[in-house]
Amino acid sequence: MKLNGLAAVLAAGFAVASFAAMASKEDQVPHGPTAVAILKDVDGKQVARVVLTETLSQTLHITAEFDGIPPGVHGFHVHEFGLCEPTFAAAGGHFAPEGHEHGIDVPDGPHAGDLPNIHVPENGKLVVEYFTKTLDLAPDDKNSLIGGPGRALIVHADPDDYHSQPTGNAGARIACGVIVPVTQNADGFQSYPEGAASESK
């Protein structure tokens, strides 16, 4: 089974924090570019904050804190356009710059944007961490999550089955957030400028 360089560590509840969050500034190792995404539900309520950091090993470290997603198992993916408005459908399909099929359980999978499911406990609070060499934050790279039309993170209503095409039968889109450089106002940034996505096709 190919994991496409992706590893995930899941921890239920905010009692578990990443080492980086606990360490003092003096203890933290240097890192490269950082991006942020604020995910909101269909009512505009913030339900997650995701931080993406390029590490010295050229591995992208993704930390996502959820608070308010319905309990249960949900698909979680990077989508091809940095658009969450006018509806979450504007984000397009899964980010797949290499043209792979969806899912780790298919021979030509997964999409670069396929992330493991999130398992949300009853209190709706969850911290997850991922490591991947498939995605990056270099604006001129085809696998980049910033630059051009941008990219978005989407949470789905149902679990990803890791094989059905093209989305793993994960159901409706219940939360969306645009990935932006940490220097931008991620909270107020729900879509790249109108026309950016269509101009990039």
Q: Class by helix and strand content?
A: mainly beta
Helical proportion, percent range: under 10%
Radius of gyration: 16 Å
* Strand elements, count: 10
Task: Report the total helices.
Answer: 2
Element-level helix/strand string = EHEEEEEEEEEH
Biggest sheet details: 10 strands, antiparallel
The percentage of residues in β strands lies in 25-35%
Spatial gap, N to C terminus: 32 Å
Low-confidence stretches: 1-27, 195-201
How would you describe the shape?
A: globular
What would the average pLDDT be, to the nearest integer?
A: 80
Describe the overall structure.
The protein is mainly β and 201 residues long. Strand 3 and strand 4 form a beta hairpin. It has helices spanning 19-22, 196-200, and strands spanning 7-12, 34-41, 46-54, 60-67, 72-79, 114-120, 125-132, 152-156, 173-178, 180-181. The N and C termini lie far apart (32 Å). It is globular, with a radius of gyration of 16 Å.
In short:
With 201 residues, the protein is mainly β. The chain is built from two helices and ten strands; from the N terminus they run βαβββββββββα.
Topology (SSEs and partners):
Layout: E1 7-12, H1 19-22, E2 34-41, E3 46-54, E4 60-67, E5 72-79, E6 114-120, E7 125-132, E8 152-156, E9 173-178, E10 180-181, H2 196-200
Antiparallel strand pairs: 1-7, 2-3, 2-9, 2-10, 3-4, 4-7, 5-6, 5-8, 8-9
